Write a sequence for this structure.
């Protein structure tokens, strides 16, 4: 980011993914021009070369087919387009496959700021500290309208949608301070929903974590809520209601009453709490009430972190 806060036309690239996105963009630009320039010139040249010189010219056109030529200008661009399709599909797939050991951070978008919560209980607003060279996964919820977390120097962006959990991940290589934006028009002060991504050397980051005042670790806050909200009354060990135990649920396949099987990721856990009737676990009655208007986004994040902590499979390191 430049000192005046503006995003340069071509921001710095600070991850391997950002370099690949740049290569794709430049390659695609080159392809478009390679195809468009000869056609543009041919249109102008033929227009001039074969212009009608006088009224007597025979208007009947004769057509000499050149099959190989006609086939080639269909097949070659098609293959080139497929190359770019495959290339970008592979990049897109990477975006949706975070490494299992990624460090996790929770983000909440709201009009008009970004709130971040580290698993250890460190909270920040409009600034996100991350270690360099390590995979980081941001798990996001919106408190009000659709926002979009945009990290231009990492070339990634992901919508943050109310009532749904989305995530993105990255591995930033160069320590420094970069821009963090909202890329979805979200109301009058949208343009002020900006912040800073601070990439730190791993040791400096650990020191920052240790030196930052931490609230209750997320999973502990979630555990307290789990009791306060009465979840434990049904999901607890000796509950009167028959409800599934939540230990070891995270990332496990769950068979649903509809016959489908889904993986219990953050999105499923959030959906189960906000819209329990939408995905009922096979073999159980749909008696769980919705907590849609009961829990705030931060409470939801804490509950999800708690359920994840029960499985020992979460990537968080406190
Ligand atoms: C009235 C009893 C009841 C309460 C209170 C309740 N649940 Fe449930 N919950 C159930 C039942 C029954 C199911 C299984 C049927 C279904 O999926 O709706 C379930 C399913 C779930 C699932 C999916 C479990 C799986 O194995 O896939 C999650 C996650 C969950 N509840 C979390 C919570 C949380 C968090 C709270 C508190 C905010 C809560 N529940 C409160 C009864 C309850
Ligand atoms: Cu926004």
């Amino acid at each position: 980011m430049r000192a005046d806060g503006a995003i340069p036309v071509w921001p710095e690239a600070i991850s391997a993914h950002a370099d690949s996105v740049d290569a794709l963009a430049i390659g695609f630009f080159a392809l478009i021009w390679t195809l468009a320039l000869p056609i543009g010139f041919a249109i102008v040249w033929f227009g001039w070369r074969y212009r009608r010189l006088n009224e007597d010219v025979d208007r009947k056109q004769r057509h000499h087919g050149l099959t190989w030529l006609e086939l080639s200008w269909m097949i070659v661009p098609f293959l080139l387009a497929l190359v770019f399709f495959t290339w970008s599909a592979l990049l897109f797939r990477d975006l949706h496959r975070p490494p299992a050991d990624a460090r996790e951070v929770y983000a909440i978008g709201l009009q008009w700021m970004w709130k971040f919560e580290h698993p250890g209980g460190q909270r920040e607003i409009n600034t996100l500290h991350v270690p360099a060279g390590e995979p980081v996964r941001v798990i996001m919820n919106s408190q009000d309208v659709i926002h979009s977390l945009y990290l231009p120097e990492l070339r990634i962006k992901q919508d943050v949608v109310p009532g749904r959990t989305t995530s993105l991940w990255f591995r930033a290589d160069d320590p420094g301070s970069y821009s963090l934006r909202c890329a979805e028009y979200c109301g009058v002060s949208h343009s002020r929903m900006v912040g800073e991504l601070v990439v730190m050397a791993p040791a400096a980051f650990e020191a920052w974590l240790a030196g930052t005042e931490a609230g209750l670790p997320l999973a502990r806050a979630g555990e307290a809520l789990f009791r306060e909200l009465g979840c434990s009354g049904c999901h607890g060990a000796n509950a009167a209601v028959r409800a599934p135990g939540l230990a070891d649920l995270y990332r496990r396949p769950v068979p649903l009453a509809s016959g489908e099987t889904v993986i219990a990721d953050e999105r499923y856990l959030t959906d189960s709490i906000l819209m329990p009737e939408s995905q009922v676990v096979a073999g159980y009655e749909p008696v769980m009430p919705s907590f849609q208007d009961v829990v705030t986004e931060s409470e939801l994040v804490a509950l999800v972190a708690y359920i994840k902590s029960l499985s020992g499979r979460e990537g968080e390191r406190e």
In short: Residues 16-49 form the longest helix (34 residues). The chain has a mean pLDDT of 87. The pocket of heme C (ligand 1) is lined by residues 229-231, 233-235, 241, 243-244, 246, 249, 254, 264, 269, 272-273, 276, 280-281, 284-288, 291, 303, 307 (CB under 6 Å). The CA atoms of residues 129 and 148 lie 18 Å apart.
